[in-house]
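Pasting as-is:
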Amino acid sequence: MHGGDVGGVNEVSGVGSLPEWKFSQVFGERAAGEEVQEVDIISAIEFDKSGDHLATGDRGGRVVLFERTDTKDHGIPRKDLERMDSSIGRHPEFRYKTEFQSHEPEFDYLKSLEIEEKINKIRWCQTTNSSLFLLSTNDKTIKFWKVKEKKVKKVSDMNVDATKATGNGCAANSIVLNCSKPHLSNGGYADEFSSSCNDQSFPPGGISSLHLPLVITSKETSLVPRCRRVYAHAHDYHINSISNNR
């Protein structure tokens, strides 16, 4: 499994053979006797309905998403193979997709109770328009998350020639230097300098082009998690499980 061990799968000795299972509640390889941070311990794990996405939550309030990769290479989904009762030649592989901070530590002042950020449960919701939706909860607060893939926007070069940009830039700099005016206490300028400055506002013939950057949409994409709704403190008991009405 790419991106570290999830749910205890350690390694596969060969194609078609059974995996070797070892209990592990943290990502990555750990040496014998290596100290594990409390916030890194996985406290919740959930597959979506299709089995193509996996979500994990830890004691630090983080949610990490994984995406299955072997279905794209072999075409036939694992669910269809199970229906055909055929043997599976290889085990599913998942790669890291994204992560976000779902919950933060809180304090209930009315009950003098500290609410830790540990994720108790994750539940996937119906996917819409290639966006992922899921619920995550700690002891008191349920949050509804939307993870959407957006194209990255970048600022390109100026939309003027380099020679013109340099010339206009020098002219603009000279204007600023020659148009130094004393400031008044209210942030304005003295009137006696306004007429002399206005004469030097534009170069002779005017400005032929503007120094405006262009914002272009690149082919690169990034995942943007966004909390769409918060269900907070609507009960007196700790939340141990959640479900939706799908």
